[in-house]
Amino acid sequence: MSNIVYKIVPADLWRKAEEDGSFRGASIDLTDGFIHLSTGAQAKKTAELYFAGQDDLLLVAIDGDRLGSALVYEPSRDGALFPHLYASLDPASVLWAHPLVLRADGGHDFPEDFA
């Protein structure tokens, strides 16, 4: 499977999405009108820039092929194309969700099966 995209999300927000059967996004997603996602090459930098020092986060791996035309790659940070989801996320599209372990330096350790 080559089209995997990732979402970094607070664990409590993701648990609620699983209970509800739908993830509408975090506050920034709701404000911007789409769910911010990252490719495998972008996820660590996203964690560094926007989630440094934050504990109780999950890295959610999503099958991008299941998102259909609602998944759009658009220029963002440094002109790189980032995946944006213009729909709510069905947890059935999720391959796995693993904790991002917070290190003493404020960075995160990514799970072993992260590509």
From TrEMBL:
Do you know which SUPFAM superfamilies this protein is assigned to?
ADP-ribosylation
Extract the signal peptide range: none
Checking InterPro entries in the record gives: DUF952
Q: Which Gene3D superfamilies match?
A: Protein of unknown function DUF952
Domain of life assignment: Bacteria
Q: Write down the PANTHER family for this protein, in alphabetical order.
A: BLR1139 PROTEIN (PTHR34129), DUF952 DOMAIN-CONTAINING PROTEIN (PTHR34129:SF1)
What is the protein name for this chain? Answer: DUF952 domain-containing protein
Q: Tell me the classification of the organism that encodes this protein.
A: Bacteria, Pseudomonadati, Pseudomonadota, Alphaproteobacteria, Hyphomicrobiales
